[in-house]
Structures are given as C-alpha cells and as structure tokens.
Request: fold
Amino acid sequence: MPAHATLLAVTERIRQRSAPTRGAYLERIARLAARPRGSQRLGCSNVAHAIAALPAADKLRIVEQRGPTIGVVTAYNDVLSAHRPYESYPALIRAEAHRLGATAQVAGGVPAMCDGVTQGQPGMELSLFSRDAIAMATAVALSHDTFDAALLLGICDKIVPGLLIGALHFGHLPCVFVPAGPMVSGLPNAEKAKVRERHAAGEVGREALLAAESAAYHASGTCTFYGTANSNQMLLEAMGLHVPGAAFVHPHDPLREALTREAVATAVRACRRAGDAQPAPAAAALPPIGRLVDERVIVNAMAALLATGGSTNHLIHWVAVARAAGIVIDWDDFAALSAVVPLLARVYPNGEADVNQFQAAGGPGHVIGELLGAGLMHADVLAMSAGGIADYARLPRFGADGRLAWHGVAQAAVADDSVARPAAAPFSPTGGLKLLAGNLGRAVIKVSAVPPERHIVEAPARLFASQEAMLAAFKAGELERDVVVVVRFQGPRANGMPELHKLTPALAVLQGRGFKVALVTDGRMSGASGKVPAAIHVCPEALAGGPLARLRDGDRVRLDADAGTLQALVDEAEWAGRDNALRPEHEAQAHAHDLGRELFAGFRRNVTSAEEGAVTWL
Reply:
C-alpha cells in the first residue's frame, strides 16, 4: 500500500522544519562514529581503568581480539514491579556476550520512579523531571566512551523516554531496548476502578480499597493497564528499537530469556567491524540509533500511539525524544495524523481488556501490520532487525527445533475484535488523542476513553490551585452540579507538572451521579486517565501568564472534543481586560520544599512548555 498522503505531508513538514538541527546532529554523530574503537583510541591508563575489574579472558577479548564491548544501562530497582526482573539480567547478558565473542559491562544505573507509588504525593512533582535526570544519568553511564553498542533496560513512564533521550545524545552507538514484560492479569482494571470510585464516594473503607489495589498490582512485571509504561513498549516496537515482539512477553515465560539473549546478539551484530576476530556479515550490519531515529521513525511512533489510544504523556515525551535527535515536532503534527489514523485497539482505560488480552489478540504486531498495510506507517525505515519494520508485524515463538522463530500475527494469535480490529473496520476512523485550541490556550484530550455523548461539556467553572483543594471541595459536597473543574498552576514551571490521577475517582463519581463534568488543567493526567473528559497540558501554563490565569469562578467553559475547541464563554472585551490571577503564596511555598523538591528548582526555572516537550536541557 502506498504511504498515505497525510503521512507523507506531515513527515515532509517535519523534515523541512528540522533540517538545520537534524543536519547538525547527523554531522556530529558521523564524526564520532568514524573514530577508532575505544580500546584503541583511549590512553593506556584510561583503558586499564575500564577493564581493571574484568576477568582476564574479557581483557583479552577487548584489547587483543578487539571484540565488541556492550554497555548496559539499567533502571533496575525493587520498587517498580516492572523493573524487578532486571536484577538477574546483567549476568545473563554477560554470559550471552561471552558466548558470542563479545564482552558486556553494566555502565551505570539510572533512577526509576514508580508513579503508582507517588500519585498524589510530593514525589510526583519530581516525576516529569526525572525523565531528564534519567537522560543525564544515561549520558554519565555512556560517557566512559569505551562501548561499541548499548543495551538499555527500562520500561516505565519516564524511564524509557529518559533512556532514549540519553541514548540519542550518543547517536553514534547502536542501541537495543530490552523489556521485561507485564505481570499476569489480576483483578480486572475496570473492577479496580469501581472500588476506587466507591471509596471516593465513602461507600467502602481503606481496607477494601487496599485489597482491590493489591489484587490488581500483585506480581513482578509491568502494570496491566495501557498507561504510559505499556505505551512506551508499543512505541519502541513501532520504532524498531526492540527485538521484534518483545514488548508483552511475561517475565517468567521461557520466551523472555530467549528474547533477551537475542537482544544481546542484535547488539553484537550491530557493532562488529572489519578486523574483528569474528566480523559480522555485511548484510547483518545494523544502524546506530541516531541514524535509525529519523523523521519517518518518529512519525511511525506517533501513528502507533494514536492507533492504540495510548498515553497522553507521550505528547510531551516524544516531542523531547525527537528534539534529542535534532527533529522538531509539535501538537499540530499529532493532530494532523490523528485525523487519518484509525483507532485499532481498545485496552483499558479505553476498553475493558488489559495488555495480556491485547497481546493475545495480536498486540503490537497486529497494530504495526495493519498500519503498514494501510499506508499509515513508513515501511522504508531502519530498524534493529535486519528485515526492517516489517519484522515487527510478527510475533516470536519457539520453533520445532527449540529456537526463536517469528510468525505472522494471523498464524500466531486468534484475533479478538473487542480488543483489536483491522484498519478496514476500526473502532474509530480517527486516532485516540486530539488537540484542543481556543481562548484558554492549547491542550490535549484522550478521546478514545471518553464516550461520544460526553465529548462536549459546557458548564460553569470551579477553580482550584491544587488537587488537594479540589478533593476537599468534593468531600464537602460543593461540586454536586454540572461543573468544569479547573486545576491550574500545575504546569512544569509551577511544580513540575504532576499527574493528577488522584482526581479521577472523584470526577467519575460526579459523572456517575448524572452531572456533566470535565477537567481542565495545565497539569498532566496519568496514562490511565479514564472516561471523564479532560483537557490537559494546557499551554501556556498559568504560572507563565497563560489564559487559564484569567478564568474566574462561575465563568462558563466549553470543552468540545468533536470540534477541537476549549473556550471560556466570556465577552471578548472583558476577557482581554482581565488581569491574570496570581498563584497563592502558600501554594508556591508548599511545593518548593521538602522531599527533594529543592533540588529541582533549576529544572522548574529552565523548563520549556509542555508542547515543547517540557525539556530542561536546551
């Protein structure tokens, strides 16, 4: 199928916009790639330090045999269920590298926050900025500059974008991401959400709520809803940065170890050079990450996000990821693609299924195959699989000989049309995310999870400067009416743009009581945001003089997800003459101190807007 005209037009617009920065980036990585291997380039003292703790056989491989050296950057910790399996990966990776005549070293670890732990807590105000801290930590790990390729071990919300941004600053290296897979299904997400709503309404106590949460989050592996973490995995597949089909294989499945070994083999193949003891065949040469991630690959990731109704967080993160490769994208690009990319998957919160059911229905392979077949992904792109992005439309299995093999989705899975559909008969002809614009600024909304009858909400505004104040008003019965809840001063400059997922149960309760309800905020919602219409990431943010600061209690606000508008229905002259409200001083002080928030003051001062990726390093 020829590429869709809109796909080509958006890609060309991005290419032209990015030409100066992309050209400079490619020149830099070409210069770095042309250098001799680290063990031959570095001084003797540098090399001795780098290999001092290695076994003698590894020293021989590196110095005499000039074998490939793989740097491992890991986000392992015991707090994130998704990252708990990584504890054993370094030993496995080293053993497989040795088998292939290479060496592997853990180059460094990066911080990894569990947003599930920090939701509604002060730590959430460090969450978005942790992405750039992870990028910096990745750079520190790889700055030893002794590696020929990198394996990146990370899954969750800010960790994958941070690792990817850091890796792209070492764009001369081939890089493979190594996932660990989701936990097995526990209490269904929809049932968990109902218990949360009953708790918010005062119908059940803490004991029942904790029991439900513990039944949902119960084992090693990624949480099973389609939030930011699992959206990360979908996008990495669509970008060709995994071993094909690696995203959603369980940690305990024997296939997981085989896929991890294949990731090592992929990295080794990618960094073989002429003169090596075991040079790779020319046909197996794979690209460095900076050349692989071009405008077409970024557009492929955007299409995959839209086709699956993925996390709204990626309208921030992938802007930053693209910028790290010298590519400039914005929300208009997402909006143009969303108008033509169909919704092909319904996974909680935009459906009832979890990621295990999504995988059983074909998973990323189904989505990528359908988008390629419809001309809605670029087929002519580089990938970390020798067959290109078409390889990612297949699923891994063990063959009759016990070796890894890949099969077409139709051969490997029985499609469930309540979870995944073909491009010819989608859940919706347009994507799951949408741009809103009007006199309140620019915002995004996840329409895939919102029933069509709730796409338009017009009601008086009730303003809050914190989620705590909103929840107090809810508990006091002050929101028992049609209402547009506005929580402002939640942007990157104000307090690090926390997720406001703690608001979801209360808003859902109000909506369940028959009221027309919407949320408008310059903060974020979790990738698991649900069925309440929410205009989020409003830019410019209120603290930066954005128009949210002009709103007053009682102003009528209209959110229209169908028309793509977000409007304060206030007389134009009055609106233009209003002063911006100031952030309450007690709120400013409350969010500046304690639990590490002081350390991120520089991030808050220097951060760009959400639409510019909330970047702190430009």
